[in-house]
Amino acid sequence: EPGEVARGKKNGLDYLFHLYEQCREFLIQVQNTAKDRGEKCPTKVTNQVFRYAKKAGASYINKPKMGHYVHWYALHCLDEQVSNELRRAFKERGENVGAWRQACYKPLVAIAARQGWDIDAIFNAHPRVSIWY
């Protein structure tokens, strides 16, 4: 359920979505630093951003996990209602996170079908999703 703590641990979906938002904030900080120094400015979350996050004390953010669940986050950003309905349905059935992660692809395909099958354009048009693709 949205807002629900996963058995008192920091591993619920809301917490994961919060980590994506934190990465976005770190990207903005890296971009600002690069602009101030006259350096090349990253437009996406790269290794440079993960290194910056680690130096800033956010070592709990790791690239493999963020890459593993990125489609999940994309669905949440593109259609939060469908995302929350899936979460609720899977919780009621007692399904695990892996099953939910697989289920998020079908709604993303439906979104792509409605918009000419260009999922890259859909992702690139959304400011919170475009930084991951």
Protein described:
By secondary structure, this protein is mainly α. The chain has one domain (13-130): Protein LEAFY (Orthogonal Bundle). It is 68% helix and 0% strand. The chain has 9 helices and no strands. Helix 1 crosses helix 2 (47-55) and helix 4 packs across helix 5. The radius of gyration is 16 Å and the shape is flat. The two termini are 27 Å apart.
CATH topology: Protein LEAFY
Largest sheet: none
Total number of strands: 0
Envelope shape: flat
Radius of gyration (CA) equals: 16 Å
How big a fraction of the residues is strand? under 5%
Order of helices and strands: HHHHHHHHH
**CATH secondary-structure class:** Mainly Alpha
| Number of separate domains | 1
Q: Overall pLDDT, averaged? A: 88
Looking at CATH, the homologous superfamily is: Protein LEAFY
Identify the CATH architecture.
Orthogonal Bundle
Distance between the termini: 27 Å
Structural class: mainly alpha
Unreliable stretches (pLDDT < 50, length at least 5) are none
Helical proportion? 55-70%
Number of helices: 9
